[in-house]
């Protein structure tokens, strides 16, 4: 009788562990694909960052800023007479 | 009952029965043994690892047919200016590749394949006939670049066609946001993404990353079906930060270009150095090129003239030799030198002043750039000592930029000095320097006589600890004050004046040297100086090569560019004007 209980217990344990193995490998596969997605996202973000850096620096070249300040905003450098130095 | 029937049966055909039952048993045994042998073989293959064609061997063979290591590309580091503005940056691009054997199994002869190539060519924006011809010529190969470095979104579109044998790899494209303005410093990379010029070449090892690798299982068509993990992760290239200030660089470039166009010159350079740190804040050259468009490269435009081209510095050396004269104690800024009658014979040469200045002070010699006065002073100096001083200023030796292709220049080293040789050195002939070396010398004067090695990068090297004192603070202050008279209305460099600031400098005009000695009508116009006079922050050198319109003297050609660069630089560096109204 006792040995039956042991066998039965082991059987249950085997079933449980096999379910666990299936669940584990499933979640590992899921996590792997998630990792893959995140890696792709990361790569896409790097691409985007590079693109934005280039865009920013090509929009903010000193030549462009100067032209905009002078022609569109009618700005100019103050002459010496217009400059006041405030001593602290 | 049972046994009886059996016995009856056996009795009926006993002889036949015996014969056939033996055969039957044998056949059954053989039939049973066959699957057993198979199972046994299977067992051996599955369980016994070693041995001829055991399971390890078979697994290896299987893997060898499906598992590949693919590179994870590492991108090249950025090059930035001192404020982190990108000067060179890599962006990933999609390179579309093909396996012609899979793409054209019939060598492109069938109508189907022609249509396929046409579809592909449209997506790649290539000529279909040309593409088909090229693919046919490589139809037995397994690798072919269809189009390199496409923008990622366009590359995606090609891949979306899902054509058998067409796949993509990531390659990086180098982009230079500053374009021609900083082209000479930054340099450029070749098709293989390795540095070819400038900082890209100098720091290639640091900038280049190490590709990582990843194991993947591929199917017959080369598609990745399973990722088996990263073997080694990629090491991205390091970023390099330069000491250049992009705003100053732009100003220097703009003014240099304007001066070169105005005077129809062949080229030129402007170098701006921070006197206290020895950092190059701007280094502009003309003619320039667009590093983003390799097709526009014209040979000769890619060299960084400020560091590679040597020239005779002419009168810009006078403050350095007069500085040594002061150091000897034989002279003070007020010592009087008689320059009449306006010319002097040294050996077989006659040296001329434009007019007879009469008896003038040492300061006035600098103000007027008197040849006769400098010669008279120089003939009382020890030429070897003077030469050593010039070396300590950084002339005749490479700078700390370590720039590829940099020239060291030359200083004269004679055992026996002729009188004309001694005079020549004092007013800048017989030696050759680069624009950056000249800037280094003026930075030394501006920095109270302490020479800090001139460099282009912001890194951990402590350049100040490598500095050396060339002049005493008093004498360097005296030289700056003497040079300040050059930009007064009666000085030779009055065009270098900057409204609101006192600036000091020295003009120079040197005959260019050709294959047959000095060239009659070819000049180099120079202006070198420091600003502001009260507490110098910057040393600026302007070199204009072969101006052909609007004069050729340093005071006419180079000085105005100096003035404009310094005016904007003072404002950008928040230097308080010396002559404006103050509110306390």
Brief overview:
Chain A is mainly alpha-helical. Chain A contains two helices and one strand; from the N terminus they run ααβ.
Radius of gyration based on Cα positions of chain B: 40 Å
Q: Helical residue percent of chain B?
A: 25-40%
Overall spatial form of chain A: rod-shaped
Number of helical runs of chain B?
20
Stretches of chain A where pLDDT is under 50 for at least 5 consecutive residues are none
Sequence-ordered SSE layout with sheet pairings:
The complex is a heterodimer of chains A (88) and B (584).
Chain A (H helix, E strand, L loop, with lengths): L1 H58 L2 H11 L11 E3 L2
Chain B lengths: L1 H11 L1 H34 L7 H12 E6 L6 E2 L5 E13 L1 H4 L7 H14 L3 H10 L6 E7 L1 H9 L5 E10 L7 H4 L11 H5 L1 H4 L4 E7 L5 E9 L7 E2 L4 H17 L4 E8 L5 E7 L18 H4 L9 H10 L8 E3 L4 E4 L2 E4 L6 E3 H7 L2 H8 L4 H10 L26 H8 L8 H12 L3 E2 L16 E2 L3 H12 L19 E11 L2 E15 L6 E8 L8 H19 L8 E3 L1
Parallel strand pairs in B: 2-8
Antiparallel strand pairs in B: 1-6, 2-3, 3-4, 3-5, 6-7, 9-10, 9-19, 11-14, 12-13, 15-16, 17-18, 18-19
Helix pairs in contact in B: 5-6, 11-20, 13-19, 14-19, 15-17
Report what the structure shows.
The complex is a heterodimer of chains A (88) and B (584). Chain A has 88 residues and is mainly alpha-helical. Helices cover 78% and strands 3% of the residues of chain A. Chain A has helices at residues 2-59, 62-72, and one strand at 84-86. The longest helix of chain A is centred in the middle third of the chain and has 58 residues, at 2-59. Chain B has 20 helices and 20 strands. Chain B has helices at 2-12, 14-47, 55-66, 100-103, 111-124, 128-137, 152-160, 183-186, 198-202, 204-207, 246-262, 305-308, 318-327, 362-368, 371-378, 383-392, 419-426, 435-446, 473-484, 554-572; strands at 67-72, 79-80, 86-98, 144-150, 166-175, 212-218, 224-232, 240-241, 267-274, 280-286, 336-338, 343-346, 349-352, 359-361, 450-451, 468-469, 504-514, 517-531, 538-545, 581-583. In chain B, the strands form six sheets. In chain B, strands 2, 3, 4, 5 and 8 form a five-stranded mixed β-sheet that branches. Classes of the chains: A mainly alpha (88), B alpha+beta (584). The interface between A and B is medium-sized, with 23 and 31 residues.
